[in-house]
Amino acid sequence: MLSRQTSQRIAFIVISLSALIVVAPILFIVGYIVVQGVGAISWEFLTGFPYNGMKSGGVWPAIVGTLWLTLGTAVVAVPVGVGAAIYLSEYAGDNQLTRAIRIAIINLAGIPSVVYGLFGLGLFVIFLNFGTSILAGSLTLGIMTLPVIISTAEEALRAVPQSFRLVSVSLGGTRWETIRRVVLPQALPGIITGIILGLERAAGETAPILFTVAAFFLPRLPHSIFDQTMALPYHLFVISTQVPGMPVRIQYGTALVLMFFVLSMNVLATLIRRHYRRQRVW
Amino acid sequence: MSAMDIKIRIEDFSLHYSDGKESLRHITLDIYANQINVLFGPSGGGKSSLLRALNRLNDLTDVAVQEGRILLDGEDIAAPGYDVIRLRRRVGIVFARPVPLPMSIYRNVTYGLELAGIKDRAQWDAAVERSLKQAALWEEVSDRLDESGYALSGGQQQRLCLARALALQPEVVLLDEPTSGLDPISTSKIERTLQELKSEYTFVAVPHSVQQAARIADWATFFLQGELIEHGDGKTIFTTPQNSQTNEYITGRFG
Q: pLDDT, tens digit, for every residue of A30-42?
């Protein structure tokens, strides 16, 4: 039998190690990519087109494409996602319909991203005849992002004290006026955080854009939402697997750009949350 | 007391919640204008439910059965199609815990006016000064109206909530244990305020103690387990109640 002190000490060590193990991979991944890729970063790399069979040049069209797709995802997912969250939190009771909606959202979150890609190909690209386009890619990424936005927004709305709603209604407010003037402003920081985290995930996805929008190589930037575009995650996939003799430096440089893009969105979300949490009175 | 104007006439009013918690059975009661009408009794007796039926905040709760009529100046406000938004502007409420809205002191007071479609800044200014003065808070906050409502002490917050209700110039003000979380000084400030304001408003109050009920009641109604046990002028009820249960409750033998 171990003494109580010893077992306590062992438990502490095991738990601390678990925490360290969580931190180690992220430090390692980030560190490795920075070390391997930072040499590739230059003005030309960030603002130039790839050439020489992509073995030279930059990633500018992929950056622009990812910006387009992130924006497109937001346009698709934010209104629908926030609207659905408001419905679920403020209007819907607990009944068969809302239970069905909740199950749908949970399942939506569980679908593998490559399945979204195939679904987007079937519905948007072929059936609705949008072709391989930013429109089809944004719709696909948008649907994939919905569950994240809905669940974080709903949580943020539910966190607003019920008493605020009661007070607003008692002063002659309708339910909608109460939501718009009191509940939404209070929930907004949480909602924005959820939106950014959802978009960040969409920005890094490869499979959903594979069949719906991403181009192997394009010599020009997209002009409209009906154009194809290059995008960072798919470009990384291409230069890592499809181009023989690709310099490792460029691969990691591209990974570094993508990682920077995604991490800076993450940092932005954290800053917004911290800023508003300090101002919050409840 | 002589013949009083009846502001609200409650006629054979019954109410049951779906969760079966609190209920009211066949309540018939007159609420007198420009008086402090007190509803008191042990918790769970239905006072708060009745209070919230008077401005239809009950609509937000799961009410299973509601019967009878509540006549405000002769109009049945309990009727299903009644315009509850207009009603809530005529019948304001102050809750047990002070809940300033997460905005400035000024905007807390003008919130109801904004909802009522009043956009005139001068009207806002006048309403803010008038209602904060009525709630005995003006002197303490007149130089910091742009600060958050949460910058105030608990007692000040509750007076802000009173001012917020008064800003709409309601005819009736409901008070649901409005001093339950406050210190004695804040409590007596609010009680004094009510006495000063009753010439302009009709108050229906659920006090947080028998002592407070006895202090402020012009009229008092004793509720027990959803039934109206006794109703009368405050003096009679708290000195020579007719009903033995009322007597036992106010003398502290149960409660």
A: 999 999 999 999 9
Give ipTM to 2 decimals.
Answer: 0.92
B65 pLDDT above the threshold of 90: no
Enumerate the residues of chain B whose CB falls inside 8 A of the CB of residue A174.
85
Considering only the beta carbons, identify the residue of A167, A177, A280 that sits closest to B101.
A167
pTM equals 0.87
Size of interface A-B (CB pairs under 8 A): 63
How far B115 CA sits from the closest chain A CA (Å)?
6
B63 touches chain A (CB under 8 A): no
3-class secondary-structure state, position B49: helix
Per DSSP bridges, beta strands B91-94 and B172-176 are: parallel
Q: Is A169 on the interface with B (CB under 8 A)?
A: yes
Domain boundaries, chain B: 6-250
Band of the pLDDT at B63, cuts 50, 70, 90?
A: confident
Per CB-CB distance under 8 Å, the chain B contacts of A177 are: 115
Name the residue among B46, B69, B148, B65 with its Cα closest to residue B101. B148
Q: Which residues lie below 8 Å from residue A84, measured CB to CB, with a gap of 6+?
A: A101, A105, A146, A150
Mutate to test the interface with B, among A90, A167, A175, A180 (most CBs of B within 10 A): A167
For B168, which residue in chain A has the nearest alpha carbon? A171
Instruction: Determine which of B56, B99, B171 to mutate to test the interface with A (most A C-beta atoms within 10 Å).
Output: B99
The domain locations on chain A are 52-279
Query: Nearest Cα to A57, choosing from A47, A68, A67?
Result: A47
Average pLDDT over residues A80-100: 92
Within 13 Å, how many C-alpha atoms sit on residue A154's CB side?
Answer: 19
Task: State pLDDT tens for residues B101-115.
Answer: 999 999 999 999 999
* Interface touch B150/A173, C-beta < 8 Å: no
User: Are B40 and B231 in contact, with CB atoms under 8 Å apart?
Assistant: no
The CATH superfamily label for domain B6-250 reads: P-loop containing nucleotide triphosphate hydrolases (3.40.50.300)
Contact B95 A173 (CB under 8 A): no
B3 band by pLDDT with thresholds 50, 70 and 90: low
CATH class of segment(s) A52-279 = mainly alpha
Helix and strand tally (H, E) in chain A? 12, 2
> Are the CB atoms for B47 and B239 separated by under 8 Å?
no
Q: Is B92 on the interface with A (CB under 8 A)?
A: yes
For residues A279 and A275, give the distance between their C-alpha atoms in angstroms, rounded to a whole number. 7
Question: Considering CB atoms only, which of A170, A177, A182 is closest to B93?
Answer: A170
B69-90 pLDDT, tens per residue? 999 999 999 998 999 999 999 9
What integer best gives the mean pLDDT of chain A? 93
Q: How far is A268 from chain B (nearest CA, A)?
A: 24
